[in-house]
Each structure stands twice: as C-alpha cells, then as structure tokens.
Amino acid sequence: MDSTVSAYSEKLREMSVLSLICSCLYSQPHPNTFGQFEDMEVKSLNKRASGQAFEVILKSPTDLSPERPQTLALPAQKKEPSLGELQRRLEAAEERRKSQEKQVLKQLAEKREREKEVLNKAQEVNNNYSKMTEEKLNHKMELITENRMARLNALKQRLREKEIHAAEVRKNKELHTEISG
After folding, report:
1. Is a pLDDT exceeding 50 seen at residue 72?
2. Nearest Cα to 18, choosing from 35, 48, 39, 43?
3. How far apart are CA 99 and CA 92, in angstroms?
4. Phi, psi of 49, rounded to the nearest 5 degrees
5. What is the pTM of this model?
6. Which DSSP category does 70 fall into?
7. Nearest-angstrom CA–CA distance, 164 and 46
C-alpha cells in the first residue's frame, strides 16, 4: 500500500492540474491511449512545437482489476473533542465575535463622524451663501436708495430753478407793465 501511495504522490507531482481533473472526470479509457499500466493510462495529445504532449489518467479504485488485492485505508474516525478543547474553541469564537463587534462599532462611529463633518460643511456653505446673498441684497437696496435720493434731489433742484425762473419772469413782467403803463 505504501508503494502505491508513494507512486501516486510522485505521479501527482509530475501531472498538471488539468490532467488530474480530466482523469477524475473521465475514468474510462480513451481511444487514443498511448499505453496502459496497472493503475493508470498514458494518452497522447496533439503534437506541439515544443514536442510530444502526454496526459496521465489515474484509474479509480473501482477500475482496478479484481485479481489485485485492494487494500484501501478506511478514513480515520474523528475523535470527540475534549471539554477543554470545546471551551478553547468557544472562547476563541467569543473573542472573534467581540473583535468583529468592535470593528463594526468603530466603522459605524467613523461613518457617523464623516456624516457630521459633511453636515457641518454643508451648513457652513449654506451660512456663507446666506451671508453673501444678504450682503448683495443690502448693497442693492443701498444703491436703489441712493439712486432714488439722487433723482429726488435732481427733481427738487429743477423745481427750485423753475421757481426762480418763474419768479424772474413775474418780476420782469411787473417791470414791463410798470414801464409800459
């Protein structure tokens, strides 16, 4: 049995993974088989530039000939874990759970902090915008008030000039009526 296991392990080292998968899926002999041995067959593949390619197919234990003695090792039975081992596993699981919980809480705290920063930044931008808008509005209102006052002053000035002119015209008329009459 040891020689078979060591032979298999040597073959496995030499085989590619693809060949191993193919041999597991297709355990029947192929038509282009190059050679057959006790527990494996060698199949020729298409020639490549680098030379001849071969595929090694291992036979399953059911494919082995009945005249060979089949001494397969039974899987080892699992022994029941001791109370101490169970306790250690439970403590390790509890530590992992606590660690994960801390990590999740830390991530949530970081997320909350980022949200606060974003909200503060948005509020600051909003306040700055409100201030600028208020300043622009106040400036516009001041300009409108100044323009109105300037127009009113100009109107008052024209009215004074017209009154002065009207007074001069009356005065001239009175002088003209006194002179002519």
Report:
1. no
2. 43
3. 10
4. -65, -30
5. 0.37
6. -
7. 121
Q: Which residues make Cβ contacts (< 8 Å) with residue 67, sequence separation at least 6?
A: none
Give the HSE-up count for residue 14: Cα atoms under 13 Å, Cβ half-sphere. Answer: 12
Cβ count near 43 (within 10 Å)? 21
Dihedral sign for Cα 95, 99, 105, 106, please: positive
Which structure tokens are listed for 63?
């494919």
List 25's β-bridge partners, or say none: none
- Which amino acid is it at 67? E
- Distance set, CA 126 to CA 122, 133, 144 (Å): 6, 10, 27
- Span 110-158, pLDDT tens digits: 999 999 999 999 999 999 999 999 999 999 999 999 999 999 999 999 9
Report how far apart, in Å, the C-alpha atoms of 89 and of each of 82, 95, 97, 102, 103 are: 11, 10, 12, 20, 21
